[in-house]
Design brief:
The protein has a single domain, classed as NAD(P)-binding Rossmann-like Domain (Rossmann fold, 3-Layer(aba) Sandwich), CATH 3.40.50. The protein contains 8 helices and 7 strands; from the N terminus they run βαβαβαβαβαβαααβ. It has a 7-stranded parallel β-sheet with strand order 3-2-1-4-5-6-7, with helices on both faces. It starts with 7 loop residues before the first strand and ends in a 7-residue tail after the last strand.
Length: 246
């Protein structure tokens, strides 16, 4: 199935750090960048889209609650109908929280699971529905240290991230033979940005010494995964600074 329109990269969870860098990186690859966050962040998203257009790329911002099935299905339909064929899906919702287990409420656990796992299922399912008939496409799921190793205080986050990794594995096995490349990226370490700089007073110095993950450097690896030849596809990639203990 051919589609003469420009291909699209969708980034669900396009925050100011990694998500924004990934969107910019794919826009530079001549894919239209479609970025989403929850509706209350739409103004920030529009600023991101404007910055991508200022660089010569195509960009569109959508306010989306990725936990709502009907909204996600409608979003994918609209992108395919009005912008172009989705070539890349990047699921990048974080949902990182830390509570002692005795202070982790059912509401917190459920919300983290909905954001980091259930929303990933919805996005992956809808992407599969449009990619499989074309016999091509890439799905990239952003993982974390908690995807493979649960830590003290991270019962909710680790549970959700483990679930997302299992989802990606299942999708890779099911969709790979149909031409769709599914990969899971374990981000093992702190990513430079406003949030981390508020927690780590020496974050700027760490970045200068390349001791902290840099969003633009991570994004280059996402593009590389998409461009891989199918005779040598990667399922799981882990990225960490050279000084990170693991």
């Amino acid at each position: 199935m051919n589609d003469a329109r420009r291909g699209v990269s969708v980034v669900i969870g396009a925050g100011d750090g990694l998500g924004a860098s990934v969107a910019r990186a794919f826009a530079r690859e001549n894919l239209a960048a479609v970025v989403t966050r929850r509706p209350r962040h739409l103004e920030q998203l529009q600023t991101l889209a404007e910055s991508i257009r200022a660089e010569g790329g195509e960009a569109h911002a959508f306010g989306l609650d990725a936990r709502k099935e009907a909204d996600v299905a409608a979003f994918f339909d609209e992108v395919e109908r009005t912008i172009g064929p989705i070539e890349v899906l990047v699921f990048n919702i974080g949902a990182n929280v830390r509570f002692p287990v005795t202070e982790t409420t059912a509401q917190v656990y459920s919300k983290v699971w909905e954001m980091a796992a259930f929303a990933g299922f919805l996005a992956g399912r809808e992407a599969a529905r449009v990619m499989v008939p074309r016999g091509r496409g890439t799905m990239l799921f952003t993982g974390a240290t908690a995807s493979v190793r649960g830590g003290a205080g991270f019962s909710a986050f680790a549970g959700a991230k483990h679930a997302l990794r299992a989802l990606a594995q299942s999708l890779a096995r099911e969709l790979g033979p149909k031409g769709v490349h599914v990969a899971h990226v374990v981000i093992d370490g702190a990513i430079d940005g406003a949030f981390i700089r508020s927690l780590l007073p020496d974050a700027a110095d760490k970045r200068a010494r390349e001791e902290i993950l840099v969003p633009d450097a991570i994004a280059k690896n996402y593009v590389w995964l998409h461009r891989q030849e199918r005779s040598a596809w990667t399922f799981e990639m882990d990225l960490r600074p050279w000084t990170e203990f693991w």
